[in-house]
Amino acid sequence: MATVASEAPTLDAARGRLRELFGFDDFRGVQPQVIERVLAGQSTLAVMPTGAGKSLTYQLPATMLPGTCVVVSPLIALMHDQLRSARANGIAAATLTSADADWRETLDAFRAGQLDLLYVAPERASQPSFRELLSAARVSMFAIDEAHCVSEWGHDFRPDYRLLRPLMDAFPGVARLALTATADAHTRADILVQLGIPEDGLIVAGFDRSNIRYAIRHRDNPVRQVADLMRAEPGPGIVYAPTRAKVEKLAEQLAAASGREVRPYHAGLEPETRAANQAAFVASEDMVIVATIAFGMGIDKPDVRFVAHAGIPKSIEAFYQETGRAGRDGDAAQTLMLWGAGDFAQARQRLTEVPEDRRASERARLDALAGLVETAGCRRAVLLRHFGEDPPASCGNCDNCLEAPGVTDVTEIAQKLLSAAYRTGQSFGFGHLQKVLTGVPDDRIAQRGHDHLSVFGIVGTEDARLLQPVARALQARGSLVATEHGGLQLGGDAKAILKGEQSVEIVVPPPSARSRRRRGGEANPIGDPLFEALREVRRELARTAGLPPYVIFHDATLREMAAMKPQTLSELAEIGGVGARKLEAYGQDFVNAIRAHE
Ligand code: ADP
Ligand code: ZN
User: Fold this and answer.
1) Which ligand is nearest to the CA of 396?
2) For 323-339, what is each residue's pLDDT tens digit?
3) Which residue range forms the structural domain that includes residue 492?
């Protein structure tokens, strides 16, 4: 039986291309479902977490379907990042942006059908001239990156995304693939409508980033706490701090404490310095950047080994997004959030400035975050449940799963503390309440007659050390609220606690961190002579090509080379991540380095 010439390429054929172009053995997660639909010309919305391999789901079909895949992407930096990776794998790709001098060649190549991928910003894509351009060429598919930008429900609405549908409607036979890492149910439904994708075209991968380890600790010595993490993770890392001043100071202190290269990043730096620090970080294999949350958007560095928060993030969503910048390459990565009672007190204070109609939902966000911080159970389970999933009770890769913290019932101490706050008129800070409760008289206490209150001296020495953590926990959950003048007021469920209807527990972290098995790939054998030699080859190739080292090969690829010691190009081709193009361009240099090492 004769096969029809226009028959769609199969998933098996795509798997062959995957090996040839990217050097990967198989698809991951929902990639095959997405690619199968795209190859069959069916429009699709893929919701996949960071690092799940979204770009491959259009880059690969783009090389198999006749014509050019038009990719809409919101940031020039992101486009250029994608361009570098695509070209390094031998895919014919170009960007059409105001920053590109070679637009004439790009247009010619596009019209001549020589491009697999053409990246454009939504502002350009929505112009009539672009529609004309597309009519003069062959479009294989549309890929819409960061598709949540099309929805007002998403966190990053971009009005120009709304003009994409009329453009795509003008090319009715062409499949659309919308991609996003963050979209709740509401936003997903909206994206489908706004981009004209059928409901059965929705493919959602789980939110879980199993290679990321979560740890949340009280902030008692942030420099030492982050420096410890830096010792455990010699690779690149991001430390988020709340203000410019704190960024500057922490960067200096961490550099001094760790001896590693640490640079600051915030909106107050000279634009050249900021750009230079960002570029140096992207290219580096071991730099740490201390930044405000302005840093991160548009950075696609796959080998970030840790993300630390020196203060609480805005919400669970923000926490997930910011920590999500770690471990995109699938190798093990760590996160550490450091929190203080003051963080929550300030955040609750700010609620009073939020417009009335949004206050309840903002408070709920903060309560959810406090729940994540306070839990004695699995952090990942709390996170995933927040996103509507039904995860197992324990993940084995968060601080609480690795070492169960002690849980202490402190309801009685909490009642005493709340009662002291109430009886002293809800206008004194923790220090004063502590003195009252432990019976340490001073002038202020005498003046106000607080030494005659029934709560004076009712907390014994044994319980006194728990007062601070109890105050912290009560503030985090909103049962104690700091006023503008620093006094502590009752709030939230304080009355229920006082009446004994609500109990209070605190989590006591285990004293030491034992050696722990990692998830998602081994650690880099830093110091291993062959691995170091291979890194040097990669560095040299990266310098010559003007590319970040990870575009040449990922760490996992170098690790496999160091372990397998391929002696020939054909042996090297078996290593994960070595596609045909990279084999040809870089293979000999690595084989030489391995041979020289025998
Ligand atoms: P996302 O855009 O979803 O955050 P990327 O497209 O940047 O993710 O891919 C993340 C990393 O995973 C990239 O380094 C990519 O090379 C790698 N990757 C993607 N698909 C596979 C696969 N099937 N096998 C192995 N690695 C993959
Ligand atoms: Zn866990």
Assistant:
1) 2
2) 999 999 999 999 999 99
3) 408-508
225-252 tens-digit pLDDT: 999 999 999 999 999 999 999 999 999 9
**Mean local confidence (pLDDT), 370-388:** 91
For the chain, counts of helices (H) and of strands (E): 28, 17
- pLDDT at residue 297 greater than cutoff 80: no
Ligand with minimal distance to 395 CA: 2
Among candidate residues 508, 541, 563, the one where a domain is terminated = 508
User: Atom 27, ligand 1: which residue's CA is nearest?
Assistant: 53
Q: How many domains does the chain have?
A: 4
What span, in angstroms and rounded, lies between the C-alpha atoms of 244 and 241? Answer: 8
State whether the Cα torsion 529-531-535-541 is positive or negative. Answer: positive
- Tell how far the Cα of 292 is from the centroid of ligand 1, in angstroms: 27
- Give CA–CA dist 138/62, Å, rounded: 12
- Check whether residue 74 and residue 103 sit in a common domain: yes
For residues 79 and 216, membership in a common domain is answered with no
Cα of 205 to ligand 2 centre, how many Å?
20
**Residues 399 and 412 reside in one and the same domain:** no
Domain CATH number, residue 497: 1.10.10.10
57 Cα–ligand 1 center, Å:
9
Closest Cα to atom 15 of ligand 1: 53
Tokens of 76: 């020039």
Strands (E) across 137-211 are located at: 139-144, 175-180, 202-204
| CA distance linking residue 394 with residue 561, whole number of Å | 34
CB of 343 closer than 8 Å to CB of 311: yes
Q: Which residues line ligand 1 (CB under 6 A)?
A: 24, 27-28, 31, 48, 50-56, 302, 328-330, 554
CATH number of the domain to which 295 belongs: 3.40.50.300
Residues 6+ apart with CB under 8 A from 5: none
Share of the chain above pLDDT 70, in %: 96
30 CA distance to ligand 1 middle (Å): 12
Mean pLDDT of 474-499: 88
Counting other chains too, the contacts that 477-480 makes at CB distance below 8 Å and 24 or more residues apart are: 477/367, 477/370, 477/374, 478/344, 478/348, 478/363, 478/366, 478/367, 478/370, 479/414, 479/418, 479/504, 480/417, 480/418, 480/421
* Beta-bridge partners for 70: 118, 142
User: Which tokens is 321 given?
Assistant: 């997004």
Which residue lies with its CA nearest to atom 25 of ligand 1?
Answer: 24
- Co-location of 285 and 414 in the same domain: no
Q: How far does the centroid of ligand 2 lie from the alpha carbon of residue 210, in Å?
A: 10
The ligand minimizing its distance to the Cα of 382 is 2
pLDDT tens per residue across span 118-157: 999 999 999 999 999 999 999 999 999 999 999 887 667 8
Tokens of 184: 């709740």
Same domain, 332 and 438: no
Q: Which amino acid is at 466?
A: L
Enumerate residues 6+ apart whose C-beta is below 8 A from 50: 181, 209, 324, 325, 328
Within a 13 Å sphere around the CA of 343, how many CA atoms are in the beta-carbon half?
Answer: 23
Q: How far out from the chain centre does Cα 558 lie?
A: 24
